[in-house]
Structure formats: structure tokens, C-alpha cells
Design goal:
CATH superfamily of the largest domain: FAD-linked oxidases, C-terminal domain
Number of domains: 3
Largest sheet: 8 strands, antiparallel
Strand content: 15-25%
Structural class: alpha+beta
Number of helices: 17
Radius of gyration: 23 Å
CATH class of the largest domain: Alpha Beta
Shape: globular
Helix content: 25-40%
Number of strands: 21
Distance between the termini: 27 Å
CATH architecture of the largest domain: 3-Layer(aba) Sandwich
């Protein structure tokens, strides 16, 4: 029987399972080089570790069948949505089988009165909101990419609207999960709170596919606001913009989004996004939801606060096309940053600190970038204390890549030192494994115990998220 060697801490696995899966699933089991490469890495860094086979199940029963066959062969499994993750979550470090859930994309049920819905894991957030629009409802988590909802749950995604509506950890009421032995369990429910045992839903949200395969999610919904307005305010320096955010939060303004672009990132977005009428200065992009009178009051209060910190050029728009233009420029910040130095690649750091430490942490990061000689524009969901430095580097220059990696590690360790986290939303994957000990200390042993207990064969996305769970 043919076996394959794998990463440290994993036994060899029976490659014969690949032929069995091809025989069972036919043209929904792909071995072509192009499909394998497509599933060998997410966005961000272009490092590729393709699987040996990609299978496209159509329902939960087929996911259970695939996992059972893989468990019998000790074959590694990597769940896959649409590949928008940034920390190497979908790299097949030990080869094996990639389960692509993108064809499981149905909206199963909606209860407008209860403000919730149930979706298959492969449904994307944009598809969900398109389906909900006629009922006056929407799902607010916006990570900037059209990710699948199962993937967003698996990586504990958040984004620009978290300050008002919460992140995936707040909005996932329950899950369907295929365990590593191929059995299906359902966690949580539809109640908004529960005091009934361990929070298994919370355990799987953010587990990054290392404990099971998410197949369905029960999600909280919200009514579409009566009116939405967006605004931009510019500042003489970055610290003034951050101080404005802190003051806005302390004042209790119910702002829906508040995003920071530093001077370099604003310059990039103006050039790339054709933003006319703005200067290349540190800027806050904001959005307000509510009634016309409520929004007018919020805008007036925020404008007054911003002015006290030197903010000017406060401009706000209500028309949908104008708002979309602003947020498109913000969501395309990564591509705008790449345009600053054509030919370079980039990855984004993901530091999150208490907002009281945000200005200092960003200032230290900017100074670090200048000293390192790297191009590193900064954007951030600053209402959450979360910011990203987009680090550009020449992929053909090993020394520059090493400087970029070292800079990213310093950003992460600086966030931890400020009482924060090395990742606010991108997750751990494989790229941040070396930071987990500094982040969690002795608590990391408890995570290792959970991994060993729930995935004793170490077949679920092995080598990710929790380092050293199976090492001697």
C-alpha cells in the first residue's frame, strides 16, 4: 500500500485514498496541476503548498464521507472556501486532500422576525446580502473580500463594520461541523444567549479548520439602516487622527465604520482609486447608519471632535454611488499599496492593541518602517485598535524579504508588548505560529490538549494555528 511522508508530528498516510476518492467523486475530484495550484495558497504571500487532490462535495453527507475515507487513511484534510485568507491557512503542508466547499452555497432558511438565517458554508457574504436585500435585512461583517461565510467563521473574521455590529465570533449563533472521524455535530442554536455547557460554537469559530470542517452556519442579521452616510476627514498627522477616534468612542457616538489611512496609504489610494479633491494626508473614512436626524447629529458631533484635533476638510456623502466609491478605494488599499512600487509583492501585518495604546504603537511602527527602509503604508480598523502595515518587498531579493519578515515579527511582538494581539482578524495559519507562545504562554498547552483530544490523528489542517501539539 503506498504511503506518504508528512510534516513532523504526523504519521505517514495511505495515498491509495486519492484513487478511492477519484473513483467515488469522478470529475468532482480534481488532480490537474492548475486546480491543485489554485488551492495551494490564499491571498497575500504567494508561497504555494498544493494538495494532492481537491474534492468538491455537494452536501454535508458527502463531506462526512470524504472525511471518513481520509480518517481511515490518516490522510491530511484542508478545508477551502474561496482562498481569500492571508496567513497560509489553506497551504497543504503535508499534502493530502483539499475539501472545496464552494459548491455548498445555498441560503437554507431566513427568519426575518427573529433576525437570523442559516447558510451553507460555501455561500459568500455578498451572495447572502444580495439574497437578503428584498427582505430589508443584511449581514454586516465585511472583511474586504467576498469570502465564504464558512471561511469567515473558521478564521474568526471581522472588518470595517465590527465597531458597530460585531465580528464573526459575535454573530455566529450555531454551526454544523464534520468532526475528524466523519461524524456530523450541530453546535449552538438560534437563541441569543445560552448557559448550557461548553461553548462549542465559540471553539470552532476561529479554529481555522484544525478541529473539523464547518458545513453550515446560523447567523444573526440586522435591518438595513434607514439611511447611510459616509464621510472623510483629513489630519495634519496620524496621531491626531487616532486621538479623534478615541474621543469619538469615549463620547459614545454610534458610528458604523471608522478607518484610518496614513499619509502614504492615502497618497496611494488617491492615485489608484482616482479620489479627487483629497490630499495625501492622514485620513479617517467614516460611515454612519440610522435615521436622517440621528445621522445629522452624529456627523455634527464627530466633526466637532475632529476639529479639536486639527481635522479639516470634513466631507460627507449620502448617495450610494459616492459611498461605494469611497469604500472601494479603502477596500482596494492593498492593490493601491502595490502600485507604489510595481513588481514588488506585499503582505499585511495584523496588530491589534487597546485603543489607548494605538497612537503610540502606530508611531513606533512607522519609525521602525522608516529605519528598515521598507515601503509600509498603514491602514486600520482603528475603532477596534486593529491596524495593518502593508509591507512591500522584492521577491527576488532574499535580503529584502528577510527584512520584511523581521519587520512583521517586530510589529506583532510590539502589539503583544502593548497588551494586544499579534493578529486581530487575519488569524494564525502558518505564518504566525512562532508568536503563539509569546501571545498565550502556558495557556498554549491547553490549546494543544484540545487539538490532541478532538483530532487525535492530526488530520485536520495539520501544522497550523496551534504549534507543537503532536511533537514529542
Amino acid at each position: 500500500m503506498p504511503f506518504a511522508r508528512t510534516i513532523a508530528g504526523r504519521p505517514a498516510w495511505d495515498r491509495g485514498v486519492l484513487d478511492r476518492l477519484v473513483q467515488r467523486f469522478g470529475d468532482r475530484a480534481a488532480r490537474s496541476a492548475s486546480v491543485l495550484e489554485q488551492h495551494g495558497g490564499g491571498e497575500g504571500l504567494r508561497d504555494q503548498r498544493p494538495p494532492d487532490l481537491v474534492v468538491f462535495p455537494a452536501n454535508e453527507e458527502e463531506v462526512c464521507e470524504i472525511v471518513r475515507l481520509c480518517a481511515q487513511a490518516h490522510a491530511p484534510i484542508v478545508p477551502f472556501g474561496v482562498g481569500t485568507s492571508l496567513e497560509g491557512h489553506v497551504q497543504a503542508l503535508a499534502g493530502g486532500v483539499c475539501i472545496d466547499l464552494s459548491r455548498m452555497d445555498a441560503l437554507i432558511e431566513v427568519d426575518p422576525a427573529a433576525l437570523d438565517c442559516r447558510v451553507q458554508a460555501g455561500m459568500t457574504r455578498e451572495a447572502l446580502n444580495h439574497a437578503l436585500r428584498d427582505q430589508g435585512l443584511f449581514f454586516p461583517v465585511d472583511p474586504g473580500a467576498n469570502a465564504t461565510l464558512g471561511g469567515m467563521a473558521s478564521t474568526r473574521a471581522s472588518g470595517t463594520t465590527t465597531i458597530r455590529y460585531g465580528a464573526m465570533r459575535d454573530l455566529v449563533l450555531g454551526l454544523s461541523v464534520v468532526r475528524p472521524d466523519g461524524t456530523l455535530i450541530r453546535t449552538g442554536g438560534r437563541a441569543r444567549k445560552s448557559a448550557t455547557g461548553y461553548d462549542l460554537t465559540g471553539l470552532y469559530v476561529g479554529a481555522e479548520g484544525t478541529l473539523g470542517v464547518i458545513t453550515q452556519a446560523q447567523l444573526r442579521l440586522f435591518g438595513i439602516p434607514e439611511e447611510i452616510a459616509a464621510a472623510v476627514c483629513q489630519f495634519p498627522w496620524t496621531a491626531a487622527a487616532v486621538d479623534t477616534v478615541v474621543a469619538v468612542l469615549q463620547a459614545g457616538v454610534a458610528i458604523a465604520r471608522i478607518e484610518l489611512l496614513d499619509q502614504l496609504q492615502m497618497q496611494a489610494c488617491i492615485a489608484h482609486g482616482k479620489l479627487e479633491g483629497y490630499e495625501g494626508r492622514p485620513s479617517l473614512f467614516m460611515e454612519f447608519h440610522g435615521s436622517p436626524s440621528a445621522i445629522a447629529g452624529q456627523v455634527a458631533e464627530v466633526e466637532a471632535i475632529a476639529g479639536s484635533f486639527g481635522g479639516d476638510g470634513f466631507r460627507w456623502v449620502r448617495a450610494t454611488e459616492d459611498r461605494n466609491r469611497l469604500w472601494k478605494a479603502r477596500h482596494n488599499a492593498y492593490y493601491a499599496a502595490l502600485a507604489l512600487s510595481p513588481g514588488r509583492q506585499a503582505f499585511a501585518t495584523d496588530a491589534c492593541v487597546p485603543i489607548s495604546r494605538l497612537a503610540q504603537c502606530i508611531a513606533e511602527t512607522q519609525a521602525d518602517a522608516a529605519e528598515s527602509g521598507l515601503i509600509c503604508p498603514i491602514v486600520g480598523h482603528v475603532g477596534d485598535g486593529n491596524f495593518h502595515a502593508v509591507v512591500l518587498f522584492d521577491p527576488e531579493n532574499a535580503a529584502e524579504r528577510a527584512r520584511a519578515d523581521a519587520f512583521a515579527e517586530r510589529v506583532a511582538r510590539r502589539a503583544i508588548a502593548h497588551g494586544g494581539a499579534c493578529s486581530g482578524e487575519h488569524g494564525i495559519g502558518v505564518h504566525k505560529l512562532g508568536l503563539m507562545q509569546a501571545q498565550h504562554g502556558a495557556a498554549l498547552d491547553q490549546m494543544r490538549a484540545v487539538k490532541r483530544a478532538l483530532d487525535p490523528l492530526n488530520i485536520m489542517n495539520p501544522g497550523k494555528t496551534v504549534p507543537g501539539a503532536f511533537e514529542p
